[in-house]
Amino acid sequence: MNPELLIDKIFTLYELHGHDDYIGEPVSQLEHMAQAAQLAEREGFDEEVILAAFFHDIGHLCASSSAAQMDGYGVVSHEKIGADFLRAHGFSERVARLVEGHVQAKRYLTYKYPDYYNRLSEASQQTLRFQGGRMSPDEAEQFEVSPLFGVSLRMRHWDEEAKEEHLPVPDLKRYKKMAQRHLEQQGFVFSDTVL
Predict the structure, then answer these.
(1) CA distance 177 to 7
(2) Reported confidence tier of residue 65, pLDDT bands at 50, 70, 90
(3) Does residue 36 contact residue 56 with C-beta atoms inside 8 Å?
(4) What's the whole-model pTM score?
(5) Each residue of 1-45: pLDDT tens digit?
(6) For every residue of the chain, which 3-state class applies, written as one string?
(7) In b/e form, how buried is each residue of 143-163, taking b as 16+ CB within 10 angstroms?
C-alpha cells in the first residue's frame, strides 16, 4: 500500500470511531488512547512504546462488523486483532507485541496480585472473563520471562489510568508524524507531502 494512504487509513479509523464511547468508561476511544500515549511519553519511553500506547485498543476500531463482541464491552480478542492489523500495515513486531501484551498484563496482574481485580473498573472486570481470566501459574511464568514484560505492565497501568474526563486531546498530527517516522524506520518511503 502507498505509505501516504496507509497513514490516512489508520488515522481515519480514529476520525470515524475515535469519538465513540470507550466501552463502559467515561471517556471516548480517542481520549483513552491519547491519554495512554501521553502517559508513556511523560515517563520518558521511546516512540515505539508511545505508539503502542496510542494504538493499544485499535482492535476495537479496525475489527469487522462481524467480530465477536464482549456483551457490549467491545470486541473479543481486540488486542490480537489490533496487533495483527499493525503488523499487516508495516509496524514493528515490538509495537504489535506491546499491543497484544496489554491484555496479557491484566491477566497476569489479576493472577499475581488477587486484589488487583478489585481495583479494576467494572468494564475491565467484565472483559477479563472474555480475555481468558486470570493467568495460570505456567502462563504467568512464561509471561515473566518475556523481554517486554516490564513495559507490558506499564502499558496496563496506562490503560487503567487513561480514563480522565475533560482532558484535551492532543493534535493527532503529532502521532501521525511519529507513525511516519516509525514506518520509515521499517523501510517505508514517504513523499515530502504526506503530512
Answers:
(1) 9
(2) low
(3) yes
(4) 0.88
(5) 666 788 888 898 888 876 666 566 667 888 989 999 999 999 999
(6) CCHHHHHHHHHHHHHHHCCCECCCCCCEHHHHHHHHHHHHHHCCCCHHHHHHHHHCCHHHHHCCCCCCECCCCCECCHHHHHHHHHHHCCCCHHHHHHHHHHHHHHHHHHHHCCCHHHHCCHHHHHHHCCCCCCCCHHHHHHHHCCCCHHHHHHHHHHHHHCCCCCCCCCCCHHHHHHHHHHHHHCCCCCCCCCC
(7) beeeebeebbbbbbbbbbebb
Give the separation between CA 149 and CA 119, rounded to whole angstroms.
Answer: 21
Selection from 65, 101, 60 nearest residue 81 by Cα = 60
Of 107, 141, 147, nearest in space to 127 by CA = 107
Copy the grid coordinates of residue 7.
497513514
Question: What phi and psi, each to the nearest 5 degrees, are found at residue 191?
Answer: -80, 170
Contact 182, 95 (CB under 8 A): yes
For residue 179, the tally of other CB atoms under 10 A from its CB is 26
Q: Where are the domains of the chain?
A: 3-186
CATH code, residues 3-186: 1.10.3210.10
